[in-house]
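Supplementary Text 2. Reproducibility record for the structural model of the 329-residue chain.

All settings were left at their defaults, and a single model was retained for analysis rather than an ensemble. We include the record here because the model underlies the residue-level annotations in Supplementary Table 4.
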Amino acid sequence: MRIVIATGIYPPEVGGPALYAKGVKESLERDGIEAPLALFSTFRSYPSGVRHVLYGLHLLKVARSASAIFVFDTYSVALPATVVGLILRIPVIIRVGGDFVWESYVERTQKLVPLPLLYTSGVTFNFKERVAFTLVKWMFRHTKLAFNTQWLYEIWKKPYGLSNENTRVVENAIGHRFESSGKDDGSILFFGRQIALKNHVAFHRAFARAQADGMTLELKEGIIPHAELIEKIRTCHAVAIPSISDVAPNNLIDALRSGKPFLLTKYSGYAEKYKDFGIIIDPLDEADMVRGLREIADPVIYERLCTRIKEYTEVRTYDDVAREMRAIL
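Retained model, structure tokens:
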């Protein structure tokens, strides 16, 4: 069997799709399945449109004689992959973990609309966003979908006209626990892209207010390779994910693996599942973010969260993820 891994980014590039593309590729290869990589970022220096065509031609070459294409992106890679799948008459499985239309809308307008409200609040998309929505809807009629959370599937089900027949939920990996570092350097980690939906401006204001009220924790942020981030998480106080929405943040999983609590936006596919291991906050309410910071700094609350995390033992490997994606075939 030969399954092509089509992805926008791949390590050492930073991001969830990069980690999952690598993890699934290595799992397939351990099972004796050939898993060639088709990487979109190779063509990023070309103008939009041109790079998509060039990537499609590259993917067409790589996917000849393949049994399927696994896609770790919902637009830039997924669109040419869908076309290639139709040409070669092979199945395409798209792993869905984000919303390109929502990200585009928030970045363009700077209106902080949570993802669950995007398709029900009467927002006005521009031409590019309308085209993207139409193309995504078309793609989904010709592919199989592996959502990383039921939460995102429920949000997309009506606007994209999804059916249970061509969709599955394949949850993210949860690796084995890291050995405890025994350290707490008093830092809150806020690592990720500097884009509007990550809510940096409001969170900085909330952090300053909490510090003015006597909180002594320090804020650390930036973008670094995943291995370096893991080491920082293992010695931090907690991880902050105050995004306007964040479907299934890997930083939260890494915090759990490191025995560290977290602050998490209530607009997340993980808010309900992992609410007992961190503090859930409203990203649109600065006062509520201040409240969350105070609680995560409180020694009694913090110790209670750490104790619960120690008792959480679920492990889910990339072998599990790859196996479930193969089962969709």
